[in-house]
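Weekly modeling sync, notes
Attendees: S.R. (lead), two postdocs, one rotation student

Agenda item 3: backlog of single-chain predictions. S.R. asked that every request posted to the team notebook include the full sequence so nobody has to chase files. The rotation student volunteered to paste the first one in as an example of the format we agreed on. Action items at the bottom.

Example entry:
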Amino acid sequence: MAVTPALPTDAEADHITAMARRANAVLMKTARALANAATPDALFRALAELLTQELRADGCAVYAADPQRRTARVEHQSGVASAARHRLEAAFWRTRLGDVILHSTPIFVEDLSTESDLDDIGPALTESGVSSLALLPLVLEERAQGVLAIRFLGSRRFDEQERELLAQLATLVALAFRNALQLGELERRADRFALLAQAQQQLTQLTSQESLPKAVAAAVYSVIPCEVIEVLANGANGLQRVLHMEAGRVSSTEPFPLQQSLLAVATEQTGVARLASHLAAGTDVDRGTMELCAAVRFGQRRAGVIRLLDANGDAFAMQDLDLLTIMARHAGTAVETARLFALQQFQRQRAEGAAELARVALQATTLADGATELLQVLDRFVPSIGKAIGVARSRGGLIEYVAASGTLDAFKGQRPAGVTGVLDFAPDGRAAELTSLRDIAPASLAAALPDEWALAVPLVARERLLGLLLVTAPRAAPLRPRDRITLERLSASLSLAIDALLLDEEERLAREREHLLATALTTIDHPIFILDRVGVRYANPAAAREYGWSQVELMDMAFEQLVSGNDTRESVREVDGLIEAGVRLSHDIHRRRDGTEFPGAVTVSPLTGHDGERLGQVVSVRNVSQDRRFEEQLRHTEKMVALGELVAGVAHEINNPLTGISAFAQLLLEEELGDDQRESVQLIKQESDRATTVIKDLLLFARITERGTGPVPINELIEQTLRLRAYPLRNSGVQVDLQLDPTNPHSSGDAQKLQQVLLNVIGNAEQAMLGRSERRLTIRTTHDAEHVIVAAVDTGVGMTAEVRQRIFEPFFTTKPGGVGTGLGLSVSYGIVRAHGGTIDVESTPDVGTTVTITLLAVPHDRL
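Predicted structure, as returned to the notebook:
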């Protein structure tokens, strides 16, 4: 007897109707939201928002999976349990997620805490607080291709209506996901074709063979990014790698023989692009690596192969094969264009080289200069590490190198050892490679020469061997065949140029002999006069510079007009007179055009003709002002020594009473005194101690010791030097700002010498700030691992560039007459250099000057 099912009550019917309406509303809202999502990211954002608002979900994840390859990846994850992403991906096929894909069946877990058999992702979810879980297959084309996981923190009952709603929701998500992926794929293809067009345009503009491999690799990487791109070129021994790029960066451009690569070799031989996945490790690839090769050709001309490698098994698809084939075809066109351009450029360079060689031959003044310029011209067209031109100056054809450059520079002016002539280099008159440079090197250089590849090119003109051109290169990289052809073609023009230079050499030498005497007189740096019976017949440029009159004006004067009187100093009169037969020495005071005078040592020699007839006199004048300055400096040094001894003696004499005064004042302070009396005694004590400190600094400054080599505390030396200069600085209104390195750096050297340098620098700064409204001297010290740096910055008048260039010259000074000797900075320069340091000066007129002293530092662990 059949049982008739009970009809639902009105309340139950209303509930069912309400649930159906809610499900329809959710599905409609989901359909609209997902339809508006044009990209996967927008799709996932809309999905997460819907699940949170409509189903009160606490988190979701979307997985894409391929059951055939057993791969899975997280496309999206938000909300609770997102942190466990790597664990979910790694364990995908060992969990319920894999079961959903394999069986295309949803799984609902209402309470994870009650599950007795948790899979690999169960603990990760429970650790994140997930209690309920809905795993829905994303079915496309009757096959599950992904999973939608919805997570809830609280336990949740999935009744039949909700399971139906979630199943329909998963269907909408799968369709929207597919559409978004297809749209994204279309956009990606459009982008790749745009990049392909851009890369093709770049390749069509290439004309340089050297930059071609890098440009091809960069173009390929912009369209097909991958781990490794190699450009392989056809060579004499088969394919060789000329460029290796990893992750878009070129790591090697050195030619390298290609190890065994069957795919690349087959691609090059057949011209058919190939895509393969390596099931076993090879000589240069690992197991599972994908390899993509396309041949670079132009017509029947085979140029090489473009090879792509990636460890990702999904890195390349057939579309990539098509794209690489297209790019390889354009690369072949670019290779041919660059080859034709290089050939045209090569022919033009040879014509330009011949014209340039002819121009040099016409404009050169000497054989050596012309040959040197010819080498420079050759080096522009055929660069090499060394070149030399040898000419046969005798009938026997013996070689003399008249010009050389690079590694052969020492050959210039020398002859090869053990070689009789040009034919020893090239017996048949043609260019020949040399087995060793030592065979053709000068004897003094043979032992030190490197083992280099060399080529000897005979120079022949008018059926006569004139010499040879010697070219060297590293033995591992000799000249390219194209460069050898260029040299041999240019050798004819070079021979004609050398022939013209040799023909002109004798004529030039004759002219040089005629002008030799005049040239010598012109280059002498002190005044030279040639006198005849009338007056000055010749005056050299140095005479014009010294006296202030032009050479023409001097030659219209009598020599006596330049002499204002005799040098009356006893020390010079003792050496006046004849110094050898016919040569007389005198010391006179000479007058310049501007009225200034200088002491001169005058040597008068007779000028006679070939027949012995006296034609005149040769007068040489040497300005001895600098000698006088040195004499004055010696006297000044002697005075300073005497002054130092005097200061030391006086300081000792004063120091003893001061010590007694200080001691007795200290005793008085220990007695009971009135306030006025105590203040007076304290003043006595303070001033006597200050005087004692000054006496100690004077003793240190005046002390005569051997040059020290101990560590010198630079900060203390600066403070001590400033105490010595405190009174003059205070009277001059100079404000001193000390910025000393708190680590108290030390330098190795002589403290007294370094103090002398500081005194000179501080004194110069003080002098430069006289009359300035702002007078500030800043002294700072810094250090690094090897050096101590002392910088003195003043606000003085500064210096012009011309003055700054001369400040280290002895006796050069900008101070008023009688102030200073002009030796302060030159002596300081010598002291600093003797200490292994440097002294630099930077100055701006009307702004100030910075003097920087750099000394060697002494590490603290060596103090």
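Discussion: group reviewed the output briefly. The mean pLDDT is 80.
Action items: rotation student to repeat for the remaining queue; S.R. to check formatting next week.
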